[in-house]
């Protein structure tokens, strides 16, 4: 079975590109970020500080996560509630980054992620897929872009959705998220030694997609 690990900072386009890649290649797509966002959402709903390890760890026994494909799209269920849309806010994103620094949360989700990878050809994206979750992945890609490019992409998405955030606010959030992800003690964001670096700052979606397909094809053909 073939496994593709895609890591990189927030706003690099990992999820959008990974979903399209999985569809085009016929692989199973696993959005690990959605899992952390779901845990972050649960913590916020419970009134817990997502950065408080003890408080969040105490909540884990009450969390059940399930992934399912609905009309060709992956949905995530938190205790049987479809929270796929609810987890895509900046507040939940920051909470996800905070709970992702919790070793207990990472251990809680690790086996679920690895078990999914055993079911067939998979494409998984996140922060530590190639370094921790799937260290022996067939293909590893570290997808990145400048903080300004990532912030502009996200800001344009917000504009299209009618959200009021300014570009400066989005850029500040992106930089803060980068600091959190790179500075945390548990599985900090870093490029695996055997990962291919792909900077998409100057690439559009289709160009980024083509570059990723080429990387995967070369690696798989070389097996």
What's the short story on this structure?
With 223 residues, the chain is α/β, with parallel strands linked by helices. The chain has nine helices and eight strands. Helices cover 50% and strands 17% of the residues.
Could you explain how this protein is built, in words?
The protein has 223 residues and is of the alpha/beta class. Helices cover 50% and strands 17% of the residues. A five-stranded parallel beta sheet has the order 2-6-1-7-8, with helices on both faces. The protein has a three-stranded antiparallel beta sheet with strand order 3-4-5, with helices on one face. It is globular and about 50 Å long. The chain has nine helices and eight strands. Helix 2 crosses helix 4 and helix 7 packs across helix 8 (167-183). It starts with a strand and ends with a helix. A hairpin with a 2-residue loop joins strand 3 and strand 4. It catalyses: CMP + ATP = CDP + ADP; dCMP + ATP = dCDP + ADP. Its EC number is 2.7.4.25. It comes from Candidatus Faecalibacterium faecipullorum. Residues 4-217 form the Cytidylate kinase domain. One of its GO terms (molecular function) is dCMP kinase activity.
């Amino acid at each position: 079975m073939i496994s593709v690990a895609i890591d990189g900072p927030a706003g690099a386009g990992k999820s959008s590109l990974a979903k399209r890649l999985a569809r085009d290649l016929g692989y199973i797509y696993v959005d690990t970020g959605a899992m952390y966002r779901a845990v972050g959402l649960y913590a916020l709903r419970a009134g817990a500080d997502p950065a408080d390890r003890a408080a969040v760890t105490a909540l884990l026994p009450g969390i059940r996560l399930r992934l399912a494909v609905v009309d060709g799209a992956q949905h995530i269920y938190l205790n049987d509630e479809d929270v796929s849309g609810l987890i895509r806010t900046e507040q939940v994103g920051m909470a996800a980054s905070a709970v992702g620094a919790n070793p207990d949360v990472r251990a809680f989700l690790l086996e679920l992620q690895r078990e999914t990878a055993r079911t067939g050809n998979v494409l998984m994206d996140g922060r530590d897929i190639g370094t921790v979750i799937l260290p022996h992945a067939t293909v590893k890609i570290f997808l990145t872009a400048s903080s300004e490019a990532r912030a502009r992409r996200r800001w344009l998405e917000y504009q299209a959705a009618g959200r009021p955030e300014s570009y400066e606010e989005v850029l500040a959030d992106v930089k803060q998220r980068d600091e959190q992800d790179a500075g945390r003690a548990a599985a900090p964001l870093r490029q695996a030694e055997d990962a291919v670096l792909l900077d998409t700052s100057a690439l559009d979606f289709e160009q980024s997609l083509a570059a990723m397909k080429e990387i995967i094809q070369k690696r798989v053909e070389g097996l």
